[in-house]
Amino acid sequence: MAEPVELMKRVDGADAPMTGEESYVYFKINPSDTNYIxxxxxxxxxxxxxxxxxxxxxxxxxxxPDTRELAIEILTSLGDKVYFEK
Length: 86
Known about the structure:
The chain is built from 2 helices and 4 strands. With 86 residues, it is an alpha+beta fold. The protein is globular.
């Protein structure tokens, strides 16, 4: 008999099915910093994938629940180059 699978808990604590998006980190950057920040994130393998969302430099990192805090730490360490969305 197979053992029961433990479901992952949502990062936001809600009682709804996880879609994966609750682990994403949304932020704004200067368009000229896009490549620089993406390269830094790529240097930390398996943290997440950065994507720009529109031409105003809204961006996101697709993280997992396990890597979300590290992605936030990395982006926070860049100081005023990153503005987190609420």
